[in-house]
């Protein structure tokens, strides 16, 4: 079955566990954000909630497609339910590869969409995504995200490079926010969480040089999400 890059055999399955924890964290952050939005009516919290719903979907798509690669029983079950979408059809076309590419495409689209939405939120303090020209720009960026995701299905590092660029700008925006808030500790933790996620994408770019970098990428992403959850839970307590 198609894989964008080789994952160390000893870590296969563990990455699904890591992503499962990331999925739970993303859902918790989305839930906290939505509760704050209902109380404060600030639209930035609703968009932040949507961003982490997209992250959650990204993890789901990744876990499903990786599970098809790792576990034969899952492939057999999927074949029974989705045949001939998964497995070999009578025409001799390998639909399992198409299925995996489709799942990986959805993973990339949702993840890039989430980072892009967080980038918009982090740009300025007030009036986020209220003006027509700001919202209309999202249509163009959605097109670019889908285009990049399609290309990344053949050159995986394009996805991680694009993630790095968006996350890099997010980190800079939150660093400026940290300075504007008189070096507030919570603002620093938010910046550090996205910086760790940025580092995780950096490791993933160079998996072709050393496969274990994939492991480091998963570890750094999980740490980044844990710090973000801790910070967000602490700051939203004040709103409650």
Structure explained in plain terms:
By secondary structure, the protein is mostly helical. Helix content is 78%, strand content 0%. The protein contains eight helices and no strands. Helix 2 (43-70) packs across helix 3 and helix 2 (43-70) packs antiparallel against helix 4 (95-122). The protein is globular, with a radius of gyration of 19 Å.
Rg result: 19 Å
Uncertain parts: 86-90
Beta-strand percentage range: under 5%
Order of helices and strands: HHHHHHHH
Summing up helix and strand content along with how strands pair, one would put the structural category as mainly alpha
Helix content: over 70%
How far the N terminus sits from the C terminus, by CA atoms, comes to: 48 Å
Spatial shape: globular
Can you give me a brief rundown of this structure?
This protein is mainly α and 240 residues long.
Layout of secondary structure:
Layout: H1 14-40, H2 43-70, H3 72-82, H4 95-122, H5 132-152, H6 156-180, H7 185-205, H8 213-239
Helix pairs in contact: 1-2, 1-8, 2-3, 2-4, 4-5, 4-6, 5-6, 6-7, 7-8
What key phrases describe this protein's structure?
240 residues
